[in-house]
Amino acid sequence: MMSSGLNETGKLTTLQGISLTITFIVGVELFTLPREVVHSVKSADAWLSVILGGIAAMVVAWVMIRLSRKFPKMNFYEYVGEIVGTWIGKFIGSIVIVYYINLASYEMRSMEIVTSFFLLEGTPWWAIQALFVWISLYLCMEKTNVIAKVCQIIVPITIVIYILILLLGLKNFDLSTLRPVLSKGMSPVFHGVNTTTLAFSGSEIMLFILAKLEQPEKAVRIMGWGIGIAIILYTTATILCIGAFTAEGILTRVWPFFDLTRSVEVKNLPLERFESLLLSIWVMEIFATFSIAFYCAALGLSHVAKLPYAWSVYFLLPVMLIVSRVPRDINELLQMGRYIGKANLILFSSLSLILLLISRWRSKST
Q1: Burial 48-68 (b: 16+ CB within 10 A, else e)
Q2: Cβ-based neighbours of 195, under 8 Å, separated by 6 or more
Q3: What is 111-169 written as a DSSP string?
Q4: Which of 7 and 87 is assigned the larger pLDDT?
Q5: Which candidate, 293, 292, 347, 295, places its Cα nearest to that of 20?
Q6: Helix (H, G, I), strand (E, B), or coil: what is residue 299?
Q7: Nearest to residue 118, comparing CAs of 323, 322, 282, 308?
Q8: Cα separation of 232 and 125, whole Å?
Q9: 3-state class of 12 per DSSP?
Q10: Closest CA relative to residue 177, chosen from 38, 31, 33
Q11: pLDDT tens across 80-124, in order?
C-alpha cells in the first residue's frame, strides 16, 4: 500500500517520494523535447528514442539506488567523501553544486521567457523572476518535507490537465505521419537517446532523499513509478506533436507541445482555449523543479563549505539570478539545456556506477 497524507515524523512518504520524482523529471523539456529529439533522429521514429531514453534512465536510477542503499543514513554529499576521500569528495560535490546552479538557472530563465512571451507581455524580467525566486526561497528554507507536500498537490492536477489536453488533441492527430516505423533503421533512434538525457534528469533525486524516506526499501518502486509516468507523458507528447505537425513541421517550432495545446479548441465549454491553463500548471511544475534543484545546490554548499544551510540558500540566490541571464536568447538557452543534459549523463550516470564499484571494492578489501 502507498502511504500518503502528511507525515509528522519528518520522513517522506512513498507518495511524496513519487511526487518529488515526477516533478523533478517533468519540467521545461515537456515543451521542447519533441523538437529536440526529432531534430536528432531526423524522422518520425523520435518517439522510440524517448522510450529507450526512459528505460536507460531506469537502469541508471537503479544503480543510484544501489549506491545510496550502502549509506542509508547519508545523502550523496556526505557519503561521496566516505568512498573516495574527503578532498576528492569535496571536489565532486563542488561540481554537482555547479550543475544544480546551472539547472536551476535554466529552469528559471525558461519560465521567464515563456511567461513574458505568452502571459505577461511587457512585464520586466526582474519582476517575473523576483516573485518566482523569493517564493522558492521560502519553500527551500523548509527543506524536503514542505517541497514534497507542494509536489504532492501539483502532480495530480498536472496529470489531469495533461490527459485532458492529450485527449482533445487527438482530433488533430494523423496516424500516417508516424509511418513507416523504423524506415531508417535503429541507428538514428539510438542516436536520439542522447537528447533525452535532460528530459529524464531528475532521477538522481534518490541520491539526496533516500535517507529521508519513511520506507527506503520502496525506493525502486518510487523511482519506477516516477520515471514510468514521465515516459508516458513525454512519449505521448512526442507522438501527438508528430501526428499533428509532422516531423518536418516540428522542426519549425520552438515549443511544439504548447503549439499543440493552442491548436485545441472546444466549443460550448467554459474554457474554449487551453494554453493559459497549461501555462499556469506548467509554471507550477517549473517552480517545483527549480525549488528542488535550488535545495540540492544549497544542501551541497552547506556540506562542502561547512556553512549553515540558511546561509547557503541566501548565498546561492543571487548567483542563480546572474547565471540565468547569461543566455542572450532562446537559442543560447536551448544550447545551455543540451550542455546540462550532457553533464547529467557524466555526473550521475557514469559517476554513480564508478562510485558503486569503488565502494564495493573497498568493502571487500576491508
Answers
A1: bbbbbbbebbbebbbbbbbbb
A2: 33, 36, 37, 39, 40, 49, 53, 338, 341
A3: HHHHHHHHTSTT--HHHHHHHHHHHHHHHHHTHHHHHHHHHHHHHHHHHHHHHHHHHHH
A4: 87
A5: 292
A6: helix
A7: 282
A8: 33
A9: strand
A10: 38
A11: 888 888 899 899 999 999 999 999 998 888 888 878 777 777 778
Alpha-carbon span 200 to 249, nearest angstrom = 24
CATH number of the domain at 14-359, please?
1.20.1740.10
Compute CA 8 distance to the chain's CA centroid, rounded to the nearest angstrom.
27
Q: For residue 274, give the nearest of 234, 30, 266 by alpha carbon.
A: 266
DSSP string, 230-287: HHHHHHHHHHHHHHHHHHHHHTT-SSHHHHHHHT-B-TTSS-SB-HHHHHHHHHHHHH
* Non-local CB neighbours of 118 within 8 Å, separated by 6+ positions: 258, 275, 279
In terms of residues, how long is the chain?
366
CA distances from 75 to 42, 65, 118, 224, 267 (A): 40, 11, 39, 20, 51
H-run or E-run covering 93: helix 86-118
